[in-house]
Amino acid sequence: YPDAASMPADEENKLPLHLAAEKQAGSEVVAALLVAYPDAASKPDGDGLHPLHYSLGMHVPSDQTGKVEPEVVAALLLAYPDAASMPAKESTGLGLPLHAALYTRAGPEVVAALLFAYPDAASMPYKDYRMPLHYAAASKAEPEVVKALLLAYPDAASKPLHTNPNVRGEGDMGRFVGSVCLWA
Length: 184
What we know:
By secondary structure, the protein is mainly α. The chain has nine helices and no strands. The termini are far apart. It has helices at 16-22, 27-36, 51-55, 70-79, 97-103, 108-117, 132-138, 143-152, 173-182. It is 41% helix and 0% strand. The longest helix is centred in the first third of the chain and has 10 residues, at 27-36.
């Protein structure tokens, strides 16, 4: 029943593609769902999350982070590249897909794909005013991730940890983090 791929599975308006991405299904499952309903990649659920957000591992145990399948992310980006620029609703705490990827310590292939789809994401701070580079440094990201972020937005290395004018007392932590990243 191919039409089932276009039917929400629950009250949160999750499609089968959302559920497959959430449970870290492999690329063959994601590809089959995309063939059955290509528009599924462009459909947010009730929280404003696209399947791309779910594919980045936000709902897996912490010992499983960093195991995001690059082929799944590539397939979802190919189906709907604009998802890379779509922030989730603020109540979810996820921000842009790049923020979610850095939070879950996704590998360099995933980060590169997200930056290719939406290069400006590297220059977009999250709600706590931290740059993606700050997250990469704080989460012990792989050196290739840090280098990709620096290539996409070199000025991030000189951004303070907080750029919010209402926040004081953070010192030059951002400059320190940035200088450490340059030598990673």
